[in-house]
Amino acid sequence: MSKRIRRSRNVVRRYIQDVDGYGTKKSPGRPRKVSTRDERNILRMVSNSVTSANDVRTELKLDVCKNTVINTIHRSGVMVHQKMAKTPSMTDRHKEFRLDFVRNNLATDWNKVVFSDEKKWNLDGPDGFRSYWRDLRKDPRLFSRRNFGGGSLMIWGAFCGKKKLQLQFISTKMNSNDYQEVLKKTIVPFFRNRRNTHIFQQDNASIHKSRSTLDFLAKNRIKDMKWPACSPDLNPIENIWGFLARRVYKTGVPFKTQQELKDAIIAAWDAIPPSELEKLVDSMKDRMMEVIQKNGGETKY
């Protein structure tokens, strides 16, 4: 029979054994790439933590994409991703300035822009990095601090294209003169042979836009980019701060001393590969287009 109908012997045997049921069984579908044990480990790792899907993949050595990890977390039914803090909304005027900024910079070569920013780091944990996987079976995680302050550090960082500038540790009470000293050590040497090709980006903090700072930049022939207010999503260095925060505070254990925290920040900054910087620079065109699509609103970045 197998030879005559040109089907395998197993097909013939299954048909004979169950004539009415043959061909009616539905396929269970594609088997899951994540085992039951791996699912338990994933849920255990993200439970009430700020661990990212990529960190889970790396730590558990899973040969799956990050979306598979995220789907596994959502499928559990006991995890929800929520934030510990909200971001302020922009006014219509802010959105208008953002649209003007995009129109004026559609042709900008973002590889020639030096992106800069400051960030505060606390011994007890980050200020803004408060998203975590809430395990609904457990009490919510609280963002606590020491009663009399755990100590903090302020850093200034900048990068251009694939190149990182030297990280600077600054005072939390820095004034315009202090800021200009930072620029003397970093920005002025970088622009020495790039004054006609590159442009410097900074936000609208008072020490950045003070008369003395603007005069300092003009004296050193450093072109200052006109930056829209309330636009951290347009500055790719904000994404770098996110990378660093995940790496520095990965263990969730507070630092005992400022030196320990400083060493961890420097190590994380030095470990950023040029490929990450390149991706961030390449994302600028997409950020510009998304601002237009959202009529000046906040982007996903």
From TrEMBL:
<dbReference type="InterPro" id="IPR036388">
    <property type="entry name" value="WH-like_DNA-bd_sf"/>
</dbReference>
<dbReference type="GO" id="GO:0003676">
    <property type="term" value="F:nucleic acid binding"/>
</dbReference>
<dbReference type="InterPro" id="IPR009057">
    <property type="entry name" value="Homeodomain-like_sf"/>
</dbReference>
<feature type="domain" description="Transposable element Tc3 transposase-like DNA-binding HTH">
    <location>
        <begin position="37"/>
        <end position="76"/>
    </location>
</feature>
<feature type="domain" description="Tc1-like transposase DDE">
    <location>
        <begin position="113"/>
        <end position="262"/>
    </location>
</feature>
<dbReference type="Pfam" id="PF13358">
    <property type="entry name" value="DDE_3"/>
</dbReference>
<dbReference type="InterPro" id="IPR036397">
    <property type="entry name" value="RNaseH_sf"/>
</dbReference>
<dbReference type="InterPro" id="IPR052338">
    <property type="entry name" value="Transposase_5"/>
</dbReference>
<dbReference type="InterPro" id="IPR038717">
    <property type="entry name" value="Tc1-like_DDE_dom"/>
</dbReference>
<dbReference type="GO" id="GO:0005634">
    <property type="term" value="C:nucleus"/>
</dbReference>
<protein>
    <recommendedName>
        <fullName>Tc1-like transposase DDE domain-containing protein</fullName>
    </recommendedName>
</protein>
<dbReference type="Pfam" id="PF21517">
    <property type="entry name" value="HTH_Tnp_Tc3_2_like"/>
</dbReference>
<dbReference type="InterPro" id="IPR048703">
    <property type="entry name" value="Tnp_Tc3-like_HTH"/>
</dbReference>
